[in-house]
Amino acid sequence: MERIPWRTMESSIRTALQHLWMPQGVFDMGGEARMIDPQRKDVNGMNREELVIELRRIGLQPGMEIEVHSSLRSLGDVEGGAETVVDALMECVGQGGSIFMPALRLSLPEELSADDRRMGITQKLRILPEDAARTGMGAVADAFRLRPDVMTGKGVIRTSGWGLHAEEAARGGLDYVIRHGGKALLLGVDIYKLTAMHYMEDILPTEISAIFAPAKEVEAVYPPDKWFIETGEPPVRAWYTIQRMAYERGVIREGTIGSCKAMFFDIMDVVGIYREELERDPFGLYGLR
After folding, report:
1. pTM for the whole thing?
2. Burial 15-39 (b: 16+ CB within 10 A, else e)
3. Average pLDDT of span 27-42
4. Most CB within 10 Å of its CB: which of 17, 58, 188, 268?
5. In the chain, what are the domain boundaries?
């Protein structure tokens, strides 16, 4: 598999933007989204030590290379908030492992106007300054990125890394963790947060990626250097099909940490299914035939 150029990566991310910011507490188990009760208190007021125990129970071990996506709110009450979650993750994998998290310079979705809807816009996000402290990536990812010992890449589509191979995040995003047996940990979110999926989309047909590309009329209002705009939606949420197939194959380990569902798996076990389906029948996968 060839490394995907960053321009291709930025284009492919449009294929999932409408699902990246699902309402807090929404979790998809195999194709059907459902709500998690935010008042649920399986583990009430977790501290760092308790969180480390839970993370180890789900499968984190010293020396692991992991891609992490999380919803702090879905975890429930955590003493110390996002910083405690970051500390616990680092304690679990240790300096002999590595942690990779998204660091995209994108805001949360902004409210659409009547004119936006007329132009077919389904999502609009501001491109943030390089030094923006808060982004749409969430509290845990932002806290992680701001740590002095974390390395972050350049540009809009960035990845942050910590640990033994932190520099790989700045140099090649998730390329290293995907290619070297890395794991993925999803806390309170589902497959539509899994950035590694985009690394399979170098073979996504242009007819599919074009669905999401904004027209010149839209770019005249929202310049591409200031806005990240999406203007389409396929008939089928293809990544949920992949998630369901991964569950059916038994490659996803599922558990509960705090108030949230957790998914833990070998990255290639899941993204490899996506690549197989893109090679086999991409238009069928996206409901376009």
Report:
1. 0.86
2. bbbbbbbbeebbbbbebeeeebeee
3. 40
4. 188
5. 6-285
